[in-house]
Amino acid sequence: MKLRLAQVVKDTEAEGPGRRFAVWVQGCSLRCPGCCNPEMFAQDKGEAVEVDALVAQLGEVPGLEGVSFLGGEPFEQAAGCAELAKAARALGLSVMIFSGYTKAELEERAAKDAGARELLLAADLLVDGRYDQALPDAKRRWIGSTNQALHFLTSRYSLLDARFHAGNTVELRLEKGRVTINGWPAPADAVRR
After folding, report:
1. pTM for the model
2. Following DSSP, what letter does each residue of 116-157 receive, concatenated?
3. CA 104 to chain centre
């Protein structure tokens, strides 16, 4: 099975608790105004990658705590994301998903779509809801707007964990002559061109 991806960062601390393997899927029909990743809206861009190749990469990074799915919209490629999420869980890694759909919408979708059901079942954490640029969230880590919610789907994490209350971070990388940026800066910290 393949996933159409916009980007993979094999080791980041800016996309969920601990060191994480972050996967940005390509394609999103929600197209929230002000989204930080509008280049990931188009479903025909990015690179098709075998899920087995991504699973193999998980073993290349010692000390990973989990996998984070971002986008784009992970539930628009639910079956492939579920396959990777289940493999991550089998390796003892946690799974965090950022989705523009609400938890209720995802549960409704899961009732009809096995991939969505399996992806939800494999998740420990879910950040849900459409990004609203008029409601920026400056208090909760990893969450873009105040209308979005963080759901603890398993007992692996707790809101009492201090990592959920630290500030957001931004990471810059130079790889093969290309600069990549990931994370969520506070509005005052954002660099404009």
Report:
1. 0.91
2. HHHHHHH-SEEEES---TTSB-SSSTT--BTT-EEEE-SSS-
3. 18
Name which of 43, 141, 46, 37 is nearest 96 in CA terms. Answer: 141
Residues 60-88: pLDDT tens digits? 999 999 999 999 999 999 999 999 999 99
Take residue 14 and report the two structure tokens written for it: 């800016």
Cβ atoms 120, 110 nearer than 8 A:
yes
> CB-based burial of residue 114 (10 Å sphere; 0-12 exposed, 13-18 middle, 19+ buried)?
exposed
| Backbone conformation region of residue 63, classed left if phi is above 0, alpha if psi is from -120 to 50, else beta | left
**Which alpha helices (H) appear in the chain, and where do they start and end?**
51-58, 78-90, 103-110, 114-122
